[in-house]
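Final paragraph of the annual report: two paired records, presented back to back.
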Amino acid sequence: MSKTSSPIGDALAASVPMVRTLNLAFEEVSAERAVLRLPDQPDFHNHIGGPHAGAMFTLAESASGAIVLAAFGEQLARAVPLAVRSAIEYKKVAKGAVTATAELGRPAAEVVAELDAGGRPEFPVRVAITREDGAVTGEMEIVWTLRLNQ
């Protein structure tokens, strides 16, 4: 089961099976930053003994989702957050536990103002994936939108 330290982590662990499957730990979640950790688990290793690329993708995407919920949780009664597109770069070999740190690429107030004006705002979330020695093993950008409920 996932280790969570925030209501958002609890909500994601309850509603997103992959978060539970990978045992993601929510170390920090705020509207400014989300930090999630993927523990070292042999069941999710790749052919060279590190975390599988798919597990790292899920870690990064989950970190982006956590910050989106923290930043825009007050909008959930009228809009649903949806991932629009993503790109990931694997930069160095990862071994052991890895951590994903997500940050919003646009001010939340600007996104909400666009939503208030009837738009469907898009905003990037940038995520750095690091191994325990601090080296960046991957970088991901996920573009999200807030779609008004119909």
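The closing record of the year follows.
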Amino acid sequence: MQRNANARTNRKIRRGKGTFMGMDVLILHTVGRRSGQPRETPLMHLSDGRGGLLIVASGGGGRNPDWHSNVVAHPDRVSIEMPGRNAVPVTAHELEGDDREQAWHQVATAQPRIAKYQSKSDRKYPLIRLTVM
């Protein structure tokens, strides 16, 4: 069911529709950490205020989503597709420490629903900064 929903959302993004539930969305292109196969995941994103984008590895359960593991395993093989545009390569960097806390404050302020989800989780959501190469 999730695969079908993602495919439907990806089609909308490719047709230039760049929002979902009031959030800006993109398609994250990764390579499977074990399979080596290309993967596409629609995700909410925010500007980091420095020319990059922030994505949150929230997922829907008690563990990080698969796309996060793919990014960590192959950070040099990540690209993004913005609404109605072709994919472009990006540098993916997981934020930690003060950088993460500052970015988290920005995410929580812009999207309070994500902060609400985080407050109900036992794990700390990873934040990834994407910078176009």
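The first helix runs from residue 2 to 14. This concludes the annual technical report; the extension proposal builds directly on these records.
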